[in-house]
Amino acid sequence: MQKSTIYPVNEVLNLEELADIMGCNIGSFPSTYLGLPLGAQHKSTEIWTGVIGKFEKRLATWQMQYLSFGGRVTLINSVLDSLPTYYMALLPMPSEVIEQIDKIRRDFLWKGNREKHKFHLIKWEKVTQPKYQGGLGIKNLAAHNKSMMMKWLWRYNLEDAGLWKEVIIAKHGRLNQWCSNITTLPYGVGLWKSIRMLWDTFDQNAYFELGNGVLLKFWTDKWLGNITLQEDFPDLFRIAQDPNSIIAANREGINWDIRFRRNMHDWEVNDLVDLFARLQHCHINLQAADKLKWGHQKGVYTVKEGYQQLCSRNPVIANWPWKLIWRTKLPPKVVFFTWIALYEACLTQDNIKKRKIQFPNRCYMCKKEVETPRHLLLHCEVASELWSMFFCLSGINWTTPLTVKDAYESWSLWKVDKAIKKIWIMIPACIFWCIWLERNKRCFDGESTALGILKTRCTENLFSWTNLYPAVNAEQLQDFTNSLALA
After folding, report:
1. pLDDT tens, position by position, 319-368
2. For 363, what's the count of Cα atoms within 13 Å in the CB-facing half-sphere?
3. What is the chain's percent helix, strand, coil content, to nearest 5?
4. How far apart are the C-alpha atoms of 435 and 364, rounded to whole Å?
5. Could you give the count of Cα atoms lying within 13 Å of 178 in the half-sphere of its Cβ?
6. pLDDT tens by residue, 399-439
7. Per-domain residue ranges for the chain?
8. Residue ranges of the Reverse transcriptase zinc-binding domain (predicted)?
């Protein structure tokens, strides 16, 4: 008992005497037990102080290390997002805490651990979108928090014998077999109340597997398609004898026996015919119970699929070439820069001027035009030479698209030999990267590289990256890159 602690609620007059008898310590609220807070308001920002401290402490261990942007993304996804998991699975994260943690993540992504100012090139709302929606795949904390809390709604339907479920039902009552009531009690219910509020979101992607029809309601549960029969046949629902009847009550032996309060009008008969046509293919299994399912594949709720459902509400960028960015063997830093380039957010002089920093704007490569991402990466005469080098190889006549995104996407549409397809789709990123390195060299070091050497470096980079594809014939690849260098 020496490791045990007694916690008084309100005033306990003989507390010290009780502690001596039991041989334990005296504690006070708020406290922690198994890593979770006790006696604190579940929406309080104070209980998240330890989580925020862990973020800052973990970052401090990387202070003297140089990390590329690609490395920072990896660390944020694999380490930083895993730190508050224990709390996020149970407690709703206050918006103030989300903002504090997001500020740490934003600063780490764009600045690393450097104290000097760095521009944030892409809005955080875009950064935290999934890759297929144009983001970096860094988790949205609010959506991740909700997806983890919705796991309890799934467990509520699986664990009939759980003590925790008995407590929930005793305090909140049942709405139906699948979820509890919405309680209005002022005290002691806030934790589950926050979870229960997510039921409508959870239910949007849930469906039922028909068993014996004892648990499912005929009109108001989604057991026959993605919407309820109440929504599909509203006129019939209004005249149903028992709108809350279960499926089994609408059966007579092996036949359907749906009862209504009155005889039908002519315009309602067609709806009834359609309803019976829908029911014709439904079969009741008297040996199986009705079950709640979720999703579209295995029918099992996972935090990953819940998160994807929440993110699916985000606006989608049309034709975003996410597979061409992320499903390649490009180095992470090149992938990251390519992602920024497709948003035309790299720090060219025109983008710097948008941040209220004024200076003469001239392209460092050609010294003729203003420097914009489109000009630098596509239309500058130096960039055009690199693009032409690859065109000459395949005999392609290509009109350069207007935007960087369109150029990147249209490049992949050309039909090339299957043996070099994986190499071919890496060429735009290789050109972007080589141009950007050369641009920065001219900007910060005042040095320039001859065009012939720049072409050679571009092909050397491509060759080194394609060595990661063991299935590619080395001699064929060498001939390919040599011909590019001579173009």
Report:
1. 888 988 998 889 989 999 999 999 999 999 999 999 888 888 899 999 99
2. 21
3. 50, 5, 45
4. 10
5. 21
6. 888 999 999 988 888 777 776 788 888 999 999 999 999 99
7. 1-40, 41-139, 145-205+295-309, 207-291, 322-486
8. 301-387
